[in-house]
Write a structure and sequence with these properties.
Pathway: Carbohydrate biosynthesis; D-glycero-D-manno-heptose 7-phosphate biosynthesis; D-glycero-alpha-D-manno-heptose 7-phosphate and D-glycero-beta-D-manno-heptose 7-phosphate from sedoheptulose 7-phosphate: step 1/1. Belongs to the SIS family. GmhA subfamily. 48% of the residues lie in helices and 14% in strands. It is of the alpha/beta class. It folds into three domains: 219 residues, Glycogen Phosphorylase B (Rossmann fold), CATH 3.40.50; 183 residues, 3-Layer(aba) Sandwich (Rossmann fold), CATH 3.40.50.2000; 216 residues, Glucose-6-phosphate isomerase like protein, domain 1 (Rossmann fold, 3-Layer(aba) Sandwich). It has an eight-stranded mixed β-sheet with strand order 3-4-2-1-5-6-7-8, sandwiched between helices. It has a six-stranded parallel β-sheet with strand order 11-10-9-12-13-14, with helices on both faces. The protein has a five-stranded parallel β-sheet with strand order 16-15-17-18-19, sandwiched between helices. Bound molecules: D-altro-hept-2-ulose 7-phosphate and zinc ion.
Length: 666
């Protein structure tokens, strides 16, 4: 039976910027934080084991926080441990993915990934590809929709749209939050309708229930008799709070109403325009509309206080330009308060016009003012609508119900993945850990990135020294142990034979690892420690070059070979990893791979050796005068070192270069 149908399936909820722990009210804290928190808790209540991955944006946060039973919050170290605008987070997603892959390698994988927002979707899609896991995504907001409404004000990178298109193609399911969201996915993103499931957002009946209106007002210090209109939520222009103020002002005009508009939200508990710039603009609008004394800005409020605000209000107003879902109207309805909303996004789905509240076009303060006036002057209508609102949300929009619907989606995906799994997976593939493979790739990429700056010029200098050695009529000796012995022979084969340049003469490179008779006799009879040094004494001449290859730089026979080479006047090159060990100070030119992981070091060492071969061939072909016929250029007749004699580098230049390298190395 697929795991998603049985036992305790493990779900990773990914929400890069919206932590379930964050409070409501700041620019980047809002519905998504609530969604992730509630979905996690209610999935856990259904028996799921849930880890929520979110970016660590405060140094005080632990890596793993056991939040509520069945739910952990994993704070992912990606970028500085400080609050950052979500528009700046895309470059950090590679680190986010790497961390999650490592975390899953240590702590076990998940049965399904559920991403929230497009950047988490990117993380989920990459992990899903690597690990063969199913993933579903709730976008919460779509770039193309946002662009339609906010145009130039959209500060997200261009890549967002292409990434969203990829996610729409690759996700096993796309969770639309309302019919409008579903239509946008189909029409703007050509999403496959068979993979879209509409699951709304919800409210928690334990958190939001009607309070006695007068008592709620008393607790909040509000006038018990004034008509009270509430606007609550994030304070950003697209939320249309300015329209709510203008509509409120129009509702009062020509009516004998004692009413107040309460605007709850902002980046601080006090209404401070310095901390919430939008607040200053809204205050100016209230003044311009002549209702400054009738509009109260409270600043942000704790979630625990919100049910009193919703219950205290006679009408809740929410008139954004657009709204992917809109959780606050639900919460108001759950407190028995009718909602006057804009006919957009999820609001036109949750609010039934004329039954649980009223809908007006977005950005239309006149229509809003008209309807608000009607509602504020008709208490029985408000009462009926409030009751119908309560009934509607309790039936259709609890988080418990949302979690059940998501669980159903997860099960379907699980069955689908099971059905489409190839029937005969070879035994070897079953035991292969994709995490191991991914870790190796990431490790090699990181080691290459770290080595790049230092190693590139070292490779150039090594190729130059080796070309000069050949030009002098000298030879190269090369040695190492194990994998490095193989590399030494590989290197010799490329230069004695050919790397890319056809028709050139053979270049004198001798691998000291190839003579088994000598290696076994000397090791058997005398010792392995000087098996290479002995050969350096036998073959090495002043002006020759010794190249040693070692990942640790600590192999005694390699160190001894370097010492013997120095004694005999050979130039010494050492291709090393880690700190370079005892070999490093004995090398005229050390080539350093910035890694301590032996296989990764070897892989980069092979790259260095191949590049040295390529550069040596380039230097050799460039040094032969172009006036010579091709055959002569590639294999000129004559002296002991015919090709080299065509190179125009003098012996004094070489020894000067050698001296410089020696000096630099001290
Ligand atoms: O290929 C590998 C490891 O990947 C081994 O054969 C490895 O080369 C051997 O353990 C060597 O003896 C290690 O020597 P060194 O690189 O520390 O000089
Ligand atoms: Zn190896």
């Amino acid at each position: 039976m697929p795991k998603l149908e049985s036992g305790t399936p493990r779900i990773a909820l990914i929400s890069e910027h919206a932590s379930p722990l964050a409070a409501l009210g700041g620019t980047d804290a809002g519905g998504q934080n609530v969604y992730v928190a509630q979905v996690a808790r209610h999935l856990a209540a259904l028996g799921y084991v849930v880890d929520v991955f979110t970016r660590r944006d405060d140094p005080g946060l632990p890596e793993v926080l056991a939040w509520v039973p069945g739910v952990r919050v994993i704070h992912v170290p990606a970028g500085p441990a400080a609050a950052l605008p979500k528009e700046d987070l895309l470059p950090l997603m590679a680190d986010f993915t790497r961390f999650m892959a490592g975390f899953m390698a240590r702590e076990g994988s998940y049965d399904l990934l559920h991403a929230n927002f497009w950047m988490s979707g990117l993380v989920a899609a990459d992990l899903a590809r690597m690990l063969g896991l199913p993933f579903v995504i709730t976008f919460h907001a779509l770039g193309k929709v946002r662009r339609l409404h906010q145009g130039e004000a959209d500060g997200f990178p261009e890549a967002r749209l292409a990434i969203e298109e990829r996610l729409v193609r690759e996700a096993h399911r796309i969770i639309a939050e309302c019919p409008q969201d579903e239509a946008d996915l189909r029409e703007l993103y050509a999403a496959d309708p068979a993979r879209i499931v509409t699951v709304p957002c919800g409210f928690d009946p334990a958190e939001f229930m009607p309070q006695d209106r007068r008592e709620a007002r008393q607790r909040l210090g509000l006038d018990p008799d004034e008509a009270l209109v509430l606007q609550l939520g994030r304070m950003v222009p697209r939320k249309g709070v300015d329209d709510a103020i203008r509509g409120f002002a129009r509702a009062l005009r020509g009516r004998d109403l004692s009413a107040r508009l309460l605007v709850v939200g902002g980046n601080s508990p006090d209404p401070d325009p310095a901390l919430t710039p939008e607040l200053g603009r809204l205050q100016a609008i209230a003044r311009a509309e002549g209702v400054a004394d009738r509009v109260t800005f409270t600043g942000s409020r704790e979630r625990a206080a919100l049910r009193d605000y919703y219950s205290a209000a006679d009408v809740f107003v929410s008139t954004p330009w657009y709204e992917p879902f809109g959780i606050t109207p639900l919460e108001a309805m759950a407190c028995g308060t009718p909602v006057l909303g804009a006919r957009v996004g999820g609001i036109q789905f949750t609010v039934v016009d004329g039954e649980t509240g009223s809908l007006v076009p977005p950005r239309d303060p006149a229509a809003l003012g008209q309807r608000l006036g009607d509602l504020l002057t008709d208490a029985p209508l408000r009462e009926r609508m409030g009751q119908a609102a309560l009934q509607r949300v309790r039936t259709h929009f609890t988080w418990e119900g949302v979690a059940r619907q998501l669980a159903q989606v997860y099960r379907e995906v699980g069955q689908e993945v099971e059905r489409t799994r190839p029937p005969t997976v070879p035994a070897a593939a079953q035991t292969t850990s994709p995490i191991t493979v991914e870790r190796a790739f990431q490790g090699l990429i990181a080691a290459l990135a770290h080595s790049r700056a230092a190693l590139q010029p070292q490779i150039g200098a090594a190729a130059q020294a080796i070309s000069e050695c050949f030009e002098r009529g000298n030879k190269v000796l090369v040695c190492g142990n194990g994998g490095s012995a193989a590399d030494a022979q590989h290197f010799a084969a490329e230069l004695v034979g050919r790397f890319r340049l056809d028709g050139r003469r053979g270049l004198p490179v001798l691998a000291l690892t190839a003579d088994t008779a000598l290696l076994t006799a000397w090791s058997n009879d005398v010792g392995f420690g000087d098996v290479f040094a002995r050969q350096v004494e036998a073959f090495g001449c002043p002006g020759d070059l010794l190249l040693v290859i070692s990942t640790s730089g600590q192999s005694p026979n390699v160190v001894a070979a370097l010492q013997a080479a120095r004694t005999r006047g050979l130039t010494t090159l050492a291709l090393l990893g880690g700190s370079g060990g005892a070999a490093r100070p004995l090398a005229d030119l050390p080539l350093m791979v910035a890694s301590t992981d032996t296989p990764r070091i070897q892989e980069i060492q092979l790259l260095a050796l191949h590049l040295i071969c390529e550069l040596v061939e380039e230097q050799i072909s460039a040094a032969v005068p172009a006036s010579l016929p091709t055959a002569a250029r590639l294999n000129p007749p004559g002296a002991a070192s015919p090709l080299i004699s065509a190179l125009q580098i003098s012996a004094p230049q070489i020894s000067a270069a050698q001296e410089t390298r020696k000096g630099a190395n001290l």
